[in-house]
Structure formats: C-alpha cells, structure tokens
Amino acid sequence: MRDAFHEDLDRISDELVQMTGMVQQAMSRATTALLQADLSVAESVIAGDDDIDELRRSVDDSAVDLLARQQPVATDLRMVVTAMHMASDIERMGDLARHIAKAARRRYPENAVPEQLRPVLSEMERVAESLVVKTGQAIANKDVLAAADLQREDDKMDELHRRVFAILLDPSWQGGTAGAVDATLLSRYFERFGDHAVAVANRIVYLVTGSYGSVDEGVVTDPQAV
Amino acid sequence: MRDAFHEDLDRISDELVQMTGMVQQAMSRATTALLQADLSVAESVIAGDDDIDELRRSVDDSAVDLLARQQPVATDLRMVVTAMHMASDIERMGDLARHIAKAARRRYPENAVPEQLRPVLSEMERVAESLVVKTGQAIANKDVLAAADLQREDDKMDELHRRVFAILLDPSWQGGTAGAVDATLLSRYFERFGDHAVAVANRIVYLVTGSYGSVDEGVVTDPQAV
C-alpha cells in the first residue's frame, strides 16, 4: 500500500493526465472549427478553456497543500514542483487551442484557411493530437522512452511549420498578405503546442534521470529554413 | 533583523530582479540588432540567453532548497512557489528577445524590417523595456500599484501590435508576403513579451492580495481587431 504522500501525488498526476485529455479534445475541436468554419464548435472550445484553467489552479492548489502538509524533501519535493511546471505547460497548450478557435470565429462565415494550406494544417492537427496523447501517457507512466519519442514526434511538427512557410513564400500562394498573416500565426500556435509537449517530456526525463533535457524552441521559427 | 527564511527569500527576489535586468539588456540589444542589421550584437544576444537560463535554474534550485530546509507553510510557501513561476515567465521573456536577435541574424546583411515598420517596432521596443524595468521594480517592492500600472503599459503594446497588422494589411504595404510573415512573427514576440510581464504582475497581485489577477493574452493576436 502506498503512503499518504504518494497517494496525494498520484492524484495530482491523475489531474495532469486529465488536463491532457481536455487539451486533446480542445485541439481536435479547434481544428475542426477552423477547417470547417464551424462557429458553434469554435465558441465551445473558447468557453471550455476556462475548465482547463480551473483544473490547472486545482493542480497548483493540491501541490501547495501537499507541500504544506507532507513537507517532502529531495526527489519527492522535486516531483511536486515539477507537477506544477507541467500544469503550466499543459494549460498553455489549451490556450493555443483557444487561439486557433478564435481564429476560426474571427473569419466566420468565411473559412480562415485557404485551400492550399488545408492539408498541412490537418496534418499539424494530427501531430498535435498525437503529441498530447503521448504527453498524457508519459506522465501516467513516468516513461522516459515515451518522452524521447515525443521529441521525435515534435520534429514532424517543426517540419510542417517549415512547410507552411514554404507554401506562403511560393509564387503560387493565393492567399495574399492577410492570408499569410493568419497562416503565420496559426502555424506558430501549432508549433508552440509541440514545444510545450516537449517541455513536459523534458521534465519527465529530468525527474527520472536527474539531468535537464533541452528544448530548442527557437529553431523552427525560422522562415528562412524552408 | 530578518529570519533565515526571509533572508533566503530576499536573495531569490534579488535574483529575479537581476534576471529582469538581463532581459532588459537583451531586448534592447536584440532590437538594435534588428533595426540596424548588426550581426555581432545579434550573436551576443543569442549567446547571452544561456546566462538568463542559468540564472533561472539557480532560482529554481534556491527555491527547492529553501522549501526543503525551511519547510514554509501558508503565505511563506506561496511566496516561494510564486518566485518559481515568475522565474519561468522572465526566462521566457529572454527567449523572445533571443527570437528577435535570430530574426536579425537570419536576414543579415539585409535589414529584416522594412522602412514602413521601423517606427512602430522601435516603439514596441521602448514599451518592452519599460515593461521589464517596471516588472523588476514591482518584484523588488512587492508593489501592487506598480503591477496594475504594468497592465496599462501592456495595453500600449497591444495597440502597437494591432498597428503592425494595420500596416501589413494596408494596400500601401511594400514588404510583400515574406516581409509580412517576418513582421507578424516579430510583432507577436513583442506582444508575448508584454503578456509575460503582465503575468508576473498578476502573480505579485496574487501574493499581496490573495486573489488571482487575469491575463487575457489571446485578445490581441487578432488581426481583425485592427
């Protein structure tokens, strides 16, 4: 039987996994709203972000409560602090899904994404969902190998981000300046979503191995790299 | 004379203020690199970001060490946890300065910013510096009024962000699609820099008053708002 500290920590871990589930759904629905110009889905994602924020506050409160009651030290203390950092990253992933839903709402009844970009954004959504599902699994299982896999998965997202820039800068681009501004922001939201998943993965690696992973999140904001 | 806990906490607070000083310098120099196409300044900002990251790790380590040794509860505990969250926001502000320096390096020897946008980006830099200086002061003085002032200052940044979109979407825009993509990302970096300053301010408000502030960071990623 587990002691009180680890039971409490398991509950916090469960809440983090629950957050990843909510973020997965938000990202999936936000992209549906974006690609199908569906206003009611966009509205529900935007409104639903409050629930993710609320759960994040709950994780923070539980963590502070746990620190106060159990006064953990060493690895136990690190685990509680790391849980709070993870909650922050996952909440931010929810914010990025909300940004995408807002882009859909802003352009409604028009479709915010020109035909040329729809395949690559669909693919970004697929990678984003895979990333957040794996993030949840890596948290649940404290799985270092899954965390390393997340980094590779995020490389796909970075490649797609470069592909968006290649499309925008190609002479065949039909979306004009306004379309390019929208697409740049949307692609950046997906890329940052991936960065936060990797940041969570690196925290798991740190917890298990005791050394910091590295997130080079600047590298693919480089349109020249295409 | 202060007790050991508060002496340690003061040292952490000093490190946070030191981080804001480093970020201020990074942002100032990154914008110089950007507007004057100065490669060596860009390189030094990019390399210098490691020092900010290092100081952030030092804050985290000091905070964990403090928790382990002093086992604070209630408000004392909240202050230590909040310091870690602030370090995370300030480190991210440094990352955004690095992103701006990378944009300058990418376009060198060309100037990354078309003539039409130089005044508004200069103004964004001025506001960014003011924000980070005030952030440092608000941390040093645990000053709720300064924190509220930060929110107002960030409204100017949001207004400038909208002005960038207005320039990009105006028929007189001369920078083409590639220039619009660059400008969208640069403006977004400045806007996010302001958001993180406001996030720190809200944490100070929370510490002093016990209730959460609100950061609506999505609101001005809206090109339609222009």
From TrEMBL, chains A, B:
GO terms for biological process: intracellular phosphate ion homeostasis; negative regulation of phosphate metabolic process; phosphate ion transport. It is found in: Cytoplasm. Keywords: Cytoplasm, Phosphate transport, Transport. Coiled coil: none annotated. InterPro entries: PhoU (IPR028366), PhoU-like_sf (IPR038078), PhoU_dom (IPR026022). It comes from the Bacteria. Residues 17-103, 121-204 form the PhoU domain. Its main location: cytoplasm. GO terms for cellular component: cytoplasm. Homodimer. Belongs to the PhoU family. Plays a role in the regulation of phosphate uptake. This is Phosphate-specific transport system accessory protein PhoU. It comes from Barrientosiimonas humi.
